[in-house]
Structures are given as C-alpha cells and as structure tokens.
Design brief:
elongated, ADP-ribosylation fold, three-stranded antiparallel beta sheet, 9 strands, single chain, Arc Repressor Mutant, subunit A, alpha+beta, 2 domains
Length: 176
C-alpha cells in the first residue's frame, strides 16, 4: 500500500501532476487536501494519516511537507519546471554519482547531464551511489571533484533530503 502511494506521489509531484489533475506552484508545492481528494477520485486509498506515514517513512526522504502541513512537494528529481528555492551551497570536496557501466563511455566524453530532470543528482557517499547505479544496470560509481567545481564557479544546491544538485558535471571533474 505505502509503496503504491509513494510511487504515485513520486510520479505526480516530480513528473506528471496532470495525472491526478493537480497543479504545482512555481516552487513545486501543491495542496495536501486537493492531492488527497484527486487521488481518491481515481481510486487510490489515501488519507492524511497514510500520506504523512509515506512522507515520514520514505527511505530517501523524497517528499517535503510545509511547516503547517498544508502543502507537499517532491524534494528533488523533477522533470517538470519548478524552482525549489534552494540556496547556493558549498559542497564537500568529493561527491559521488551512480550510473550503469554501459553509460560510462559517453559520460566520460560529455560529462554528467541532467537528462530529462532539472539537475544532476550527486550523493554524499559511495553506498548510495551504488544503489542508484544498480537501478540502471551493472553499477559504476563516479567520484566528482565537487570542491574544485565549486571553486571554479559552478553552482551547487542541497535538496531538502540531502541530495546534492548541479546543472552539469564536465568530464574534467570526474573520476571512474
């Protein structure tokens, strides 16, 4: 049950709000009450306690509730245009990116690109990067010289769930 609701929330809050007929504001927020009502209209067994339990139990902290609990958004990973209002942040010296081994050659030529998403996602630790890479095939973990990138003028943001975001990682900052 909670897996089904979590997948639904990830899909509509990151990629396809129109699936439920909801609207995301410029910062990615939508009304919890409207989200629940629209999901119930489409046959999903969801109420506020279920939604709050899914948000609290998300292993990757994928969702953020507003302080008053009236709004919800995805923490990161959007393919729809939103401005999460994140502050520029100085990253640690090294971050990690997990991908499939089959993607390695083009990445080492073109760098890491956001693809259909707004940002490239980077992890604080190799273990998380391995998990991410495993979803796409045989995993490989890339080390990102984030400190040097930052000193060279590249922007970094830290999402509500701790994932580091940047627009592009040129190959010069990557090590396989």
């Amino acid at each position: 049950m909670s897996t089904e609701i979590s997948k639904l929330l990830s899909h509509v809050l990151r990629h396809a709000p129109e699936r439920l007929g909801i609207v995301l504001d410029t910062n990615g927020w939508t009304s919890v009450d409207i989200l629940i009502a629209k999901a119930r209209e489409q046959g999903f067994a969801i109420d506020r306690p279920i939604l709050e339990a899914v948000v609290a139990s998300s292993d990757k902290k994928r969702f953020t509730l507003s302080e008053d609990g009236q709004l919800i958004r995805a923490a990161q990973g959007h393919s729809v245009a939103v401005d999460l209002g994140l502050e520029l942040s100085e990253p640690p010296e090294v971050l990690f990116h997990g991908t499939a081994r089959d993607n390695l050659e083009p990445i080492m030529v073109e760098g890491l690109k956001p693809g259909k998403r707004q940002h490239v996602h980077l992890s604080l630790d190799e273990e998380t990067a391995v998990k991410v890479g495993s979803r796409h095939g045989k995993p490989v973990v890339l080390k990102v010289d984030a400190g040097r990138m930052y000193r060279d003028g590249r922007a970094f943001f830290r999402a509500d769930n701790g994932v580091w975001l940047t627009d592009h990682v040129p190959p010069a900052y990557l090590q396989a």
